[in-house]
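The records we work with from here on pair a chain with its fold. A complete example follows; check for yourself that the lines match position by position.
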Amino acid sequence: MKDIHSAMSVAVAIGNATLAADNTPAAIDLLGYDAAEILLAIGAGGITFSGSNKIEFVLTHSDDDVTYSAVETKHMLGVTVATGGIIKSLIAAHAAAAAYRFGYKGGKRYLKLLADFSGTHGTGTPIAALVIKGWGHDNPQVNQA
């Protein structure tokens, strides 16, 4: 078996919580890594999503942690990005928990992931997101146990 553990670390993009409104995105610094994978875990929807009552997950990137721009499809693997950096939209019923992954190949140093809520969300939806930072330059990476 090959060792993936020693060449990666994990950062929290959206802390595990039941959200009914936008999160405050944390800046994820990719300095010292050559790869990034965004993992999104979404529980059963707190509401029945629609075109007006929805959650859109918006990924932005930056070279300086000051000026962020929306990612585009050319920056990603495994997803066609919608206008404004939307990598995942919840616009229909989400009755069961699910996990999604998105590869980032944009080459900028910083990432931010926003859970952008629109409409009325009287009941929250469980959400968590992690960024796996891979192929670290200074291996082995520190354990995070």
